Amino acid sequence: MDINYVLSVVNSALRSTTPILLAALASAICTRSGVFNVALEGQMLIGSFVGIAVNWVTHSPTLAVLAAIVAGGLVGALVGILQVRYNAADMVVGTSVNLLVGALTAILLFVVFGVKGGFKDPALVPLPKVKLPVISEIPYLSTLFNNLSPLDYLSYVIAIVMYIYLFKTVKGYHLLSVGVKREAAESMGISAVKTRIAAVIASGCLCGYGGVALSMGQVTLFAENMTAGRGFIGMAACNLGKNNPIAIIFASLFFGFSDAFAATTQNTIPSQLTQSVPYIATILALIVFSRKRKKKATKTEESKAEAVS
Predict the structure, then answer these.
(1) Residues 6+ positions from 180 with CB-CB distance below 8 Å
(2) Which domain holds residue 250?
(3) Do residues 230 and 212 lie in contact, with contact meaning Cβ atoms separated by under 8 Å?
(4) Cα(114)–Cα(112) distance, rounded to whole angstroms?
(5) pLDDT tens for residues 41-100?
(6) Nearest 5 degrees, angle CA 198-CA 204-CA 210?
């Protein structure tokens, strides 16, 4: 097998990982706070659309990324208020928001750009590609890290910073306490409602970032429902990583590789099969993970029983 082909697949996997990683981190911060956020897909999609729209108007990728993050945060605020403040059912809110954003972006696509299905324009300014000083001169490594945008690199920095915040700071433990024992947290003066809403807003910002990474990081265009389930795959990656941002990186890379495999084999394998690869990988990974967790729980219960006896 050609080494350059393998490296190009890995490069494609790194680019495919970014939106999934951001969605997984968004899911993690919500889960740690005790909120089940199903609206990740909608938050990503609004980020994808707003990023392209602002890019088209301003010709500034930086403003486009910032606008996408804000748009995702606003949808996150809506989800947080409905679920936390008004105790609306998480599945109902999440599903409704996903459907609403899907319909809204399709309508705005026609109203703003006068097209249906998708929008691409030469006036759109793509994100710059990062050229690493030394690595770009090394033959194989230059192929491996070619065509990566600043958003790709920054996503891993965000994951590391988020790990430090969640596991090494007092605020991170406050977030966990709200999710694990709300009454105890409130007795310490921590507002569970404010903390949870803030967590959902933060998750929305992360999803907006992931959405614009999808519409501007790999290509510079918008297509209806272009997130294609990546929000749900991010939830699976979060589950596999047990809400730990470092573990989530590796889980997201797994799904990124499955996505890249599907993209690179679509010319030789029927498209219906290749498009299902990421979802098949998600199901298989969750089955294996749940079985391992079940075995671990069984062993723990057996050891406790032996200790009692």
Answers:
(1) 34
(2) 3-308
(3) no
(4) 6
(5) 999 999 999 999 999 999 999 999 999 999 999 999 999 999 999 999 999 999 999 999
(6) 145
Domain with residue 135: its CATH number is 1.10.3470
DSSP string of 158-199, one letter each residue? HHHHHHHHHHHSHHHHHHHHHHH-HHHHHHTT--HHHHHHHH
Pairing label, strands 118-119, 222-223: antiparallel
Estimate to the nearest angstrom the gap between the alpha carbon of 286 and the chain centroid: 17
Cα–Cα distance, 166 to 195 (Å, whole number): 13
170 C-beta neighbours (distance < 10 Å), count: 7
Q: Residue 145: what are its φ and ψ, rounded to 5°?
A: -105, 15
The residue assigned the tokens 């024992």 is: 181
β-bridge mates for residue 119, sequence order: 222
Q: What burial letters (b/e) apply to 141-160, b meaning 16+ CB within 10 Å?
A: eebbbbebbbbbebbbebbe
Number of domains present in the structure of the chain: 1
